[in-house]
Antitoxin
Amino acid sequence: MSVFDKLKGMLKGHEDQASKGVDKAGDYVDGKTQGKYSSHVDTGQAKLKEQLGGTGQTPDSPPQPPPPPQQ
């Protein structure tokens, strides 16, 4: 059983809280790096949220469009 499988089991039912934590951690990293790596941080946040099952959206909110491609 991988670490992500264990985390998913622990966070089951708390995906929104996990998503908020991922956002908070990304904001912290952006602050410490003065936004220099913000595109990388955003990509990492999205992939981590996908792995953990949290989208950060409430069930009634419309889906958000994907971010524009990076050049």
Summary: The mean pLDDT is 80. The chain has one domain: 3-52. Residues 4 and 51 are 8 Å apart (CA to CA).
